[in-house]
């Protein structure tokens, strides 16, 4: 992982750092990586340029730290994972989770960053995968407790299929998945993938 560059002076304030990293993600969602500037980030965070440059040497190092921050937060999880009482219901409810314009814009921004090489691109890819993987692990664990699935279901594979299909839909339509798309994805793709081993396929 890239270490941050720190100059002499008072120790970093964790709350201030978090505010700056959150601001960096907000600006990324609004303008994309190419148009993002350190100036826009420090103004959004109500911090001075000196504060930002005391911690990070420039745009790439700042955004690497911001994506590391987002990956860790996504891994620990925020928000509720739907529990409807059935595997199908949980999958449908998960795909119906609200995604407003900021979320869609951030996804577009992450996809652009993911196309780049090096640590920054790798972190963007990890962030795109990590949140869906966390949710899917919880959903499948509940289904396993109910006896709906076995122990051999690959949560990451199911998460990747889910993310791949929903990202394609987002890129083609710039709209969240509607009910017809969600139910088709669950019934014709996800459930067959999840239950393939149990059905002997």
TrEMBL record:
Recorded superkingdom: Bacteria
This protein's record includes keyword Disulfide bond: no
HTH tetR-type domain boundaries: 14-74
Keywords: DNA-binding, Transcription, Transcription regulation
MF annotations from Gene Ontology: DNA-binding transcription factor activity; transcription cis-regulatory region binding
DNA-binding region, residue range(s): 37-56
InterPro entries: Homeodomain-like_sf (IPR009057), HTH-type_TetR-like_transc_reg (IPR050109), HTH_TetR (IPR001647), Tet_transcr_reg_TetR-rel_C_sf (IPR036271), TetR_C (IPR011075)
Pfam families: TetR_C_11 (PF16859), TetR_N (PF00440)
PROSITE patterns per UniProt: HTH_TETR_2 (PS50977)
Keyword Ribosomal protein among UniProt keywords: no
Entry-linked PANTHER family: HTH-TYPE TRANSCRIPTIONAL REGULATOR RUTR, TETR-FAMILY TRANSCRIPTIONAL REGULATOR
The protein's name: TetR/AcrR family transcriptional regulator
Source organism: Pseudonocardia broussonetiae
């Amino acid at each position: 992982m890239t270490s941050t560059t720190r100059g002499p002076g008072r120790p970093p304030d964790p709350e201030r750092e978090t505010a700056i990293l959150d601001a960096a993600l907000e600006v990324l969602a609004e303008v994309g990586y190419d148009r993002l500037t350190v100036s826009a980030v420090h103004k959004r965070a109500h911090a001075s340029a000196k504060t930002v440059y005391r911690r990070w040497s420039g745009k790439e190092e700042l955004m690497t730290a911001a994506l590391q921050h987002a990956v860790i937060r996504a891994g620990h999880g925020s928000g509720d994972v739907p529990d409807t009482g059935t595997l199908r219901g949980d999958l449908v409810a998960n795909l119906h989770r609200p995604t407003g314009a900021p979320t869609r814009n951030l996804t577009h921004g992450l996809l652009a960053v993911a196309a780049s090489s090096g640590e920054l691109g790798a972190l963007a890819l990890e962030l795109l995968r990590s949140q869906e993987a966390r949710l899917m692990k919880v959903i499948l664990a509940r289904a396993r407790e109910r006896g709906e699935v076995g122990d051999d279901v690959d949560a990451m594979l199911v998460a990747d299929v889910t993310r791949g299909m929903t990202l394609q839909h987002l890129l083609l339509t710039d709209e969240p998945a509607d009910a017809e798309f969600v139910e088709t994805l669950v019934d014709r793709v996800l459930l067959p993938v999840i239950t393939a081993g149990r059905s002997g396929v």
